[in-house]
Design goal:
With 171 residues, this protein is α+β, with helices and mostly antiparallel strands. It has two domains: 3-12 and 67-169, no CATH class; 20-62. The protein has four helices and nine strands, in the order E-H-H-E-E-E-E-E-H-E-E-E-H. It has a five-stranded antiparallel sheet. It has a four-stranded antiparallel sheet with strand order 5-6-9-8, with helices on one face. Helix 1 packs antiparallel against helix 2. It is elongated and about 65 Å long.
Length: 171
C-alpha cells in the first residue's frame, strides 16, 4: 500500500499564501547567485545557496492537492511516516502553541505502543532527493506532533474528523 492509495479523510497543504515565501526566497537566491557570479563574490554565492536550500526544504508546500495527512479505516496516516493503527493510538488532542505572541495549533497523537509496533505500513524510507525536504510531522517520545495551520482545512475540523473516525473504527 502506498501513499497514493489512501482513502478516507485527507488533508493537503493550503493553496493560497503558503507558497509565496518559497517563491520569493527562490527568486532572492537566483538574484544573489547571479550577482555573486557576476562580481565573483563568494559570500553572495554562499547566501544564494542558503536561500536555495530553504526553498528546497520547503518544496513540498508547493505541491498542493496531494494528501499529506489523513485517516481511514486502518488508522491515521502521514506523509513520510506511514499508517498508525487505531489500536495503537491512546489519545488525540489539539494544542494551541504560543510562539512570540502568535498562536498556532498542533495536533498531538499519543501512542500506546512504540512507533515500530504502531505502524501498519512504514513510509519512513524516502527517495534520496526527498530526504532533506519538509515532513508534515515530528516525533518525540511517544507523541506524533503535526502542525495543522499549514493545511487546507481548519484545525478544529481536522481534530473533529480524526476523533470521530477513531471513535468509529477503534471499537
Amino acid at each position: 500500500m502506498s501513499q497514493d492509495d489512501m482513502h478516507g479523510y485527507t488533508v493537503a497543504y493550503e493553496r493560497e499564501e503558503i507558497q509565496f515565501p518559497v517563491y520569493v526566497v527562490c527568486l532572492i537566491g537566483a538574484c544573489l547567485a547571479t550577482i555573486g557570479f557576476a562580481i565573483d563574490n563568494i559570500i553572495l554565492i554562499a547566501l544564494s545557496l542558503m536561500a536555495f536550500g530553504f526553498a528546497y526544504y520547503n518544496f513540498p508546500l508547493l505541491e498542493t492537492g496531494k494528501p499529506r495527512i489523513g485517516c481511514g479505516q486502518y488508522g491515521i496516516f502521514a506523509e513520510g511516516l506511514g499508517i498508525v493503527a487505531w489500536r495503537s493510538i491512546k489519545e488525540i488532542e489539539l494544542k494551541p502553541i504560543d510562539i512570540r505572541g502568535s498562536t498556532s495549533n498542533e495536533l498531538r497523537i499519543t501512542l500506546e505502543d512504540p512507533l515500530q509496533k504502531a505502524l501498519l505500513v512504514d513510509w519512513r524510507r524516502r527517495p534520496f532527493y526527498r530526504f532533506l525536504m519538509r515532513l508534515p510531522w515530528t516525533f518525540s517520545g511517544n507523541i506524533i506532533r503535526i502542525p495543522v495551520d499549514v493545511f487546507d482545512r481548519p484545525a478544529e475540523e481536522i481534530m473533529q474528523s480524526f476523533t470521530r473516525m477513531m471513535a468509529f473504527y477503534k471499537r
